[in-house]
């Protein structure tokens, strides 16, 4: 036991000594840890490896088969490879096809047929597989085998049209027309798409079987009626053209008529009517063509009938008269206007154009219908600016009924309906009231005209209504009514100077001068007037016409108490000059003197200059040398000055020059005049001294002389 412990102890020491003697490998230290200049990515490594694999692959050796054993060995190896590929993935049909085509290349038809059958067991829905199988049989002239395969294909996959096309083509190439027709019949039982039917029809036409082709067309049309929800127009057109091509014109017309009846007015198509019209045109049935086009244009929307319009226009240019061409143009424009008013019923300009067109070419009922549609589009907002164009629809409607249709009763109804429609509490249209009154007068119904105008003044008084009513009564020589109307008018608008003047002129014409003067006095006494200067001028002219010069002077004095305008002074002076008396010149000069004194404190110096110029013209014509010299001394001096400008924000905007007038009479300006004269004298002396310095010889000569 002790020896074992010792051995163990010695073994442990030897192990430790061996471990101590074992050297640890040194790790190489990298001196340059900077990245390499050319970096290589993992993607680059993989790409290079792939490229080198392709480079290193040696080309397959060219094998030459010299005897049967080598050939059988080669076939065995190839078949084993194909079978291995199929075993790995049975669903890859390309492997089966390659296998079968290889066997076919070796003329092993039976083996190839066996491979195709095995492939069909795997995926019988693969179209390519069936096609390759059948093509192999046809290529090798195995007709019955090919028929068998096509029968199996169309039975298994009847919705694959390619099988049917190939099958019928094969039978036709073999000259088996009956067999091909039988295949087509089997195909038609599946109710295929449109092209299949046309293929069947073309097949029959190739063999001159027109009756059979017609029967197929009928079956197809019946099929579209029963099965297809939205049948296509082109199928009917093809059927009709088929009949036309084979000179069955009655049958073709019947087909077109059936198509029109079938589609009705809900699914109208311009292509059908264009084809129908061209067919009738070829048959020289021009009236039928015109009826077809008009029928279609009346029912098809404008945006869907562009081609129809174009063909109709061409037809009328070829076979129609001038009236027919005009009808086309009018019809086209009507469609355009209809689309515009449908898009925006409140586009009143479009309605005006539409109505103008309709009035020129249609009957009264159609025009009334369009007018009623137009006036039904009442502006949605009760603001006058939105009603200004709309109201002319009513006016044109009423004028049409009166002047064109000669229906006075309907005209009255139009006017009354329009008046009821307008919201008179918010706004009104004086034109409507006046037109209605004038219409009643033309109908010799004066009480209704007066009632209408009276109602208008009571509901919504306006200056234009008063003026129109007064003018009507003046034409009727009803002066008492005119006076009453003027009184009402002036109560409504006392600030209207024109009304006061017209009222006074009426009394003047009637010879009642005192009433006219009283009206003028009332007018100038109003606190507010829109054109007071016109009123005062009219009053003054009135007194001058009556040769009441003292009253005219009093009027001028009263006017000057209210305003000191220069035109009033000049007019006053001109009046005194035109009075025609001996003292007229002195009175006129006195007026000028007063005006000059009154306008000394006027800020508008241009007005004072205007007065002095008028005075100078007067003195030049009627004055003496003394008065002329005096007025010349009163004339101001025009000088140029500068003043500082300021912008809206208060900053400096520079300087501007302007002209000012200095009047000799203004004593406040005398020091400035003296200063100005001294400045001019100093400037003159400076110029003379500068000239002397520039020419000293001239100064010596002058001193010697």
- Biggest pleated-sheet summary: 2 strands, antiparallel
Report the strand count: 2
Assembly context of the chains? single chain
State the end-to-end distance: 171 Å
Q: Stretches where pLDDT falls below 50 for ≥5 residues?
A: 1-21, 698-705
Principal-axis shape equals elongated
The spatial strand order of the largest sheet comes to: 1-2
Could you characterize the architecture of this molecule?
The protein is mainly α and 705 residues long. It has a domain at 235-320. The chain contains 36 helices and two strands. It has helices at residues 2-21, 42-56, 68-88, 93-105, 109-122, 127-139, 143-156, 161-173, 177-188, 194-206, 210-226, 233-245, 249-263, 270-282, 286-297, 306-319, 322-343, 348-361, 364-375, 384-387, 390-404, 408-421, 430-442, 446-459, 463-475, 479-492, 497-509, 513-524, 532-545, 549-562, 566-578, 584-598, 605-622, 625-634, 670-694, 696-704, and strands at 637-646, 652-662. It has a two-stranded antiparallel sheet. A hairpin with a 5-residue loop joins strand 1 (637-646) and strand 2 (652-662). Helix 15 packs antiparallel against helix 16 and helix 23 (430-442) packs antiparallel against helix 24. It starts with a helix and ends with a helix. Belongs to the crooked-neck family. Keywords: Coiled coil, mRNA processing, mRNA splicing, Nucleus, Phosphoprotein, Repeat, Spliceosome. Its main location: nucleus. Residues 690-705 have a biased composition (Acidic residues). Involved in pre-mRNA splicing process. As a component of the minor spliceosome, involved in the splicing of U12-type introns in pre-mRNAs.
């Amino acid at each position: 036991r002790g020896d074992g412990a010792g051995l163990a102890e010695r073994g442990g020491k030897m192990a430790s000594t061996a471990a101590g003697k074992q050297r640890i490998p040194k790790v190489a230290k990298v001196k340059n840890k900077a990245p390499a200049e050319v970096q290589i990515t993992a993607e680059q490594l993989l790409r290079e490896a792939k490229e080198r694999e392709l480079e290193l692959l040696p080309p397959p050796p060219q094998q030459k088969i010299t005897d049967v054993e080598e050939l059988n060995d080669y076939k065995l190896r190839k078949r084993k490879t194909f079978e291995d590929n199929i075993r790995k993935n049975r669903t890859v049909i390309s492997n089966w096809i390659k296998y079968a085509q290889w066997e076919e290349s070796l003329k092993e038809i039976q083996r190839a047929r066996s491979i195709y059958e095995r492939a069909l067991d795997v995926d019988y829905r693969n179209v390519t597989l069936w096609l390759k199988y059948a093509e192999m049989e046809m290529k090798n002239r195995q007709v019955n085998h090919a028929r068998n395969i096509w029968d199996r294909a169309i039975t298994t996959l009847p919705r694959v049209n390619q099988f049917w096309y190939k099958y019928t083509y094969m039978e036709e190439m073999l000259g088996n027309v009956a067999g091909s027709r039988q295949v087509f019949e089997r195909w038609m039982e599946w109710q295929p798409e449109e092209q299949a039917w046309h293929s069947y029809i073309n097949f029959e036409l190739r063999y001159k079987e027109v009756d059979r082709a017609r029967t197929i067309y009928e079956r197809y049309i019946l099929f579209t009626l029963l099965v297809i929800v939205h049948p296509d127009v082109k199928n009917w057109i093809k059927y009709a053209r088929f009949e036309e091509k084979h000179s069955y014109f009655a049958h073709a017309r019947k087909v077109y008529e059936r198509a029109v009846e079938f589609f009705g007015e809900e699914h109208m198509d311009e292509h059908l009517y264009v084809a129908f019209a061209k067919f009738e045109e070829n048959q020289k049935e021009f009236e039928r063509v015109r009826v077809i086009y008009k029928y279609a244009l009346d029912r098809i929307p404008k945006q869907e009938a562009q081609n129809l319009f174009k063909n109709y226009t061409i037809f009328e240019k070829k076979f129609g008269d001038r009236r027919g061409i005009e009808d086309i143009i009018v019809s086209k424009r009507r469609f355009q206007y209809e689309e515009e008013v449908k898009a925006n019923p409140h586009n009143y300009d479009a309605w005006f154009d539409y109505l103008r067109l309709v009035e020129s070419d249609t009957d009264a009922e159609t025009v009334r219908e369009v007018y009623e549609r137009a006036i039904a589009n009442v502006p949605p907002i009760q603001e006058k600016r939105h009603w200004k164009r709309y109201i002319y629809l009513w006016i044109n409607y009423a004028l049409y009924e009166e002047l064109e249709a000669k229906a006075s009763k309907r005209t009255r109804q139009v006017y009354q309906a329009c008046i009821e429609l307008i919201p008179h509490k918010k706004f009104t249209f004086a034109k409507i009231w006046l037109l209605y009154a004038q219409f009643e007068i033309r109908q010799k119904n004066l009480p209704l005209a007066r009632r209408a105008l009276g109602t208008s003044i009571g509901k919504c008084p306006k200056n234009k209504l008063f003026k129109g009513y007064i003018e009507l009564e003046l034409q009727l020589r009803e002066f008492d009514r005119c006076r009453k109307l003027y009184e009402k008018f002036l109560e409504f608008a006392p600030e209207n100077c024109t009304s006061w003047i017209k009222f006074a002129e009426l009394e003047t014409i009637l010879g009642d001068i005192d009433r006219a003067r009283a009206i003028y006095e009332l007018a100038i006494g109003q606190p507010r007037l829109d054109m007071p200067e016109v009123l005062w001028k009219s009053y003054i002219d009135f007194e001058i016409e009556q040769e009441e010069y003292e009253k005219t002077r009093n009027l001028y004095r009263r006017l000057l108490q209210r305003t000191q305008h220069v035109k009033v002074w000049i007019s006053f002076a001109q009046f005194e000059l035109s009075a025609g008396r001996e003292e007229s010149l002195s009175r006129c000069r006195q007026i000028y003197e007063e005006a000059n004194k009154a306008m000394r404190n006027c800020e508008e110096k241009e007005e004072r200059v205007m007065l002095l110029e008028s005075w100078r013209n007067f003195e030049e014509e009627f004055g003496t040398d003394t008065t002329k010299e005096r007025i010349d001394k009163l004339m101001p001096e025009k000088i140029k000055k500068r003043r500082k400008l300021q912008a809206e924000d208060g900053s400096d905007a520079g300087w501007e020059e302007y002209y000012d007038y200095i009047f000799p009479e203004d004593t406040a300006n005398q020091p400035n005049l003296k200063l100005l004269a001294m400045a001019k004298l100093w400037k003159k002396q400076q110029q003379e001294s500068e000239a002397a310095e520039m020419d000293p010889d001239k100064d010596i000569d002058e001193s010697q002389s």
